[in-house]
Queue: 4 jobs
Job 1
Amino acid sequence: MDSAFPRFLPAEPKDLEATGLNAEFLADLVLKTMYTRGFLLGHEIADEVRLPFANIVDRALDYLRREHLTEVRGSSGLGESSYQYVVTDEGRARARELMGQSQYVGPAPVRLEDYTRAALTQSMSGQTITLETMKRTMAHLILPNGMFDQLGPAVNSGKSIFLFGHPGNGKTAIAEAIGAMLPGAIVIPYAVGVDSSVIKVFDGLHHKPITDETALPKGERFDKRWVLIRRPMIAVGGELTLANLDLSYDPTTKYYEAPFQMKANGGVFLIDDFGRQQVQPRDLLNRWIVPLEKRIDYLALVTGRKIDVPFDALILFSTNLEPEHLVDEAFMRRIRYKINITDPSWEDFREIFKRVVSKRNIAYSEDILRYIVTEYYIKPKRKARAVHPRDLIEELMDIARFRGVKPEMSQDLIDAACRGYFIKE
């Protein structure tokens, strides 16, 4: 893991004003937390909303007690943070009313302007991927000559990248490797608040928290409403729709989920199988003309209010289709880097084959590889793909296991694997 400290580390708030929240919102959030969780100690409530107990959560609890919405039932130690708080009958009625307005319960949100400042401070712009880093991260891939010279400047630019070429040559693997080589860690908020609305940003499926304390400066107490993560790598495929690119409002829970590109800020957003989405490529690029150029995205709340958020992900488009069949020249101009992932040379094909069989403890045979190339590529005029060695050897192993024989690069097993893999000779 890159041990460099994040460039943005918000300090722990000392009072309510520093949180950017109003007292009523925080009291409502605390009450809903208690309503959904049951009996809680003061410090447990503070942990749930990710705010300090002293001068912040204790003030909300004092207000709720004065309004007879909560009460103290006991204590597990010294100090108010050890008091056990419970919701009264009047408090439960109020909590049900609040849940009807919004069911969001969890870490208190941060201000939109603080999120914007964090995203810009932690931008990929100015980050440098060296040739050594790229070679090390992509050492597991066999790439065509000159590929590093194309990929390196494209990644360092922070601009959009269009990967195209025949299927099975590693476009997705390259994109994933790019995500893995991004330097440093970043912090993102669990949620962002806009007026009385909450936008959930942290996504456990796509964001990988860093728990290593050495990744943070010693002795500094930071705002726990933010979480330290690796730079995100978010990939979507044919399931992508235009609705996925705007705020998702759940009419039942009554709060928002951030769109994919917002969750990808500071990292990589891969649109895989571009051109096979339910949305037309032209419509998708129309949606992103302004964000790609201005690095700002405009999102709409159900109230009609528009908010602008940073658009700071490295956007990767990957497709097996011919670029000119997807969009016109004007649109392609807005995608800065276009990189053709070509078929492997026969030398590269041999190296891939060697790595595949070595990984599976199968002895490599140059004679059998020559047989494969002659009979299943040259004679039928078939193009080699980088994925073929892996697929053929996996099929060979399946056949050997079924027959109860040792998997090896034999003509018999290779013929059986090729017959089952290739559609026609």
Note: The chain has three domains: 22-107, 112-340, 346-421.
Job 2
Amino acid sequence: MVSSASTGKAAAFLALHSGPGFILPNAWDAGSARVFEQLGFPAIATTSAGIAWSLGLPDGGPVDRDTMLDHIGGIAAAVAVPVTADLEDGYGDTADAVAGTVAAVTALGVVGANIEDARDRVLFDIGDATDRIAAAREAAPRGTFVLNARTDAYFVGAAGDPFDEAVERANRYVEAGADCIFVPGVSDADTIRRLAAAIPAPLNIVAGLASSMPAPELFALGVRRVSVGGGIARAALSFVERAGRELLDTGTLGFLDGATSYAETQARFGG
């Protein structure tokens, strides 16, 4: 049973897709999610890559479903804004298994998710991929959950024209119940504009992966949802590396310049 609070969050999250465009920051733990919420973001996404890296593991498979759901649940519990989860390929070999994953994440209070159509850098058969989206939709009905179907036609490569492949898959996924279509790996403005025009649903583009265009430029091309994937997590880990290198090489503390104080950080988390 989906709670009225979750339904309200889902409605608010879905409404963002009808506006001029919005940015989703991707959190990897409860602390990063709290920071994004306090900055004023109206919704937050998780990043499977960032969660994997926080566990000392690579992205793309080593983190099992239950571990990922534990971390997603911690993020959702830490904030009051809508949370959408990166569920990779749905953590299952069958459509029924994908449905089970979606049902499990809705029980955590999450009100949206990405489902990918590839594994190990190989696209699923389009029929199989469509069945997985349909199963996810059945597990989380419209109005209670925002289903973002991701096609990796560009990210991993298609046998033919990636544009045609992405558009065909997008149309099939929308027919199967997807609310939004996510196409990572696209970098040029003309292709993004054409995708936004050809896909009959809001288009999600990830900034900082293939495309370095800022969000306002993407919105002008017709994109409605901009996420950053593991980008902020990568930036945070890069800072940790620079700070560690400074300590190791010189013993100086320049990396603390501009850092919030202990008291300010405590106050951010209610201490």
Note: The first strand starts at residue 22 and ends at 24.
Job 3
Amino acid sequence: MYELHIEILGITPTIWRNILVPDDTKLSKLHRIIQAAFGWTNICKHEFTFNRRYGKRAAYDALHDRSYDERRITLAAAVAQDTALKARRTSFMYAYDLIGAPAWSHVVSIENIIVANEHNDWPVCIAGENACPPEDVGGVDGYKDFVRIITDPHHEDYPATYRRYGGPFDPKGFDLNSANARIRRLR
């Protein structure tokens, strides 16, 4: 199993999750695990970048997309094929929301490789900090504006922002149990 540290780039304080995933996890499933661990809703295009790019390939974009099909490769195989990872680089990139606002860039670091036993042979989130930005908030800059507005009830845009994003938002809020409940639903 891989212990992965996943961090959204460009935001302070850092938004991150640590997850354990089996080495035979397809990248397409790793995408869904990351979505669940953070609380994203999987409505946008995404991509992994090792020394190759991997994403979801559909018939309509197969001729124009230069990425490889993420459904056909496991995490262990992608790591093994990445010559830079073999040369001791221990991270790769995951981007989410490639079409709308600037993509959410995540650095995924391989923290550890452990042997699974009968008690931990499935994906699980083991730690994290800070709330995941809402979908369609406008990337890093939009999120910074969102936090400034949603944490100030006296801001003129607070009522509209509150309604648009469904109520209160705690930028420091992270619930490990909720993250794992979302991951368990993937099984």
Note: The chain has a mean pLDDT of 88.
Job 4
Amino acid sequence: MNFKNDKTRSFIETILIITLMTLYVLLGIYFIPVIIILYPIPFIILGIRHGIKYNLIAIVASSILISILIEPFTGLFIFVAFAPLSIFIVYMIKEKKDFHEIFGFSILITIASFLATIFIMGKISGVDFIASIDQSLSETLKAQINMLKDKGLSESEIYNFKDILKNAYDYFSLVVPSTLIIFSGFTAYINYLLSAVILKNLGYGKIDVPKFSYFRLPGNIILGTIVIFLAVFLMKVFKILYYDAIFVNVTVLASFVFFLQGFAVILFSINKLIRNKFLRVLLVIFMLPLGMFISFIGFLDAIFDFRKIKREI
């Protein structure tokens, strides 16, 4: 009787999640696209509660429904982009792997999934991803220039604005690879974190829910960063193609990872020194715009270990 009840509960939860997440994707596509990155969470929870089989069945069924309700390739894109991450996180949690191992491999899987999605989109549409970004930025630049002309600005003022905007758009085009990596890391982290928190609340107490204030880069990160920048410098010496793009993207990634550690140091200090939650939030909001300063703090913490986490944990 209990077995039948379990099977019935699993079936009902699967149908419910398929229905809700299909509607969720429709909401995301037509109104708030960014929320789609949270699509894997219910499937992860379903997989932990009832097994990977239910995770896979639900996400396949949801993708098929999305294809029927929107258009055939949308469901395919959703499946390729998010199914591997969902299945992998379920498997790793089931295997009782620690957060750092899950997170590291989740980033790689998410990057591979997003690249596969971009590749498939390019093959189907016949439009190169980078070229489409350049075209979109070019059209945006033209629209903004026309808007400035309508406001009655002089030719010299419009020229200066155009130069600033063009440099900004050129830089954005250049950092697409590092932006993709950062976005993949965020997607992997937020899906694991929210899934873990929900599962904890459902009584799955052995799942590791990391505190961001204790985030720490690997101990050899400084040496690794130096080696990478030396390699990039050698690329310049030997005049290897795309040196500028590689240098910019490496710099963005290095700044970002040290920003994460610096931000963790700030959160750790705020939590230690201030009891009032409202004041904590205000301080965090105040500190966020200080990006380079926070990255510098992270760099110093990687050397000196201000929090002495190794001794505390």
Note: The chain has two domains: 2-125+177-201, 211-312.
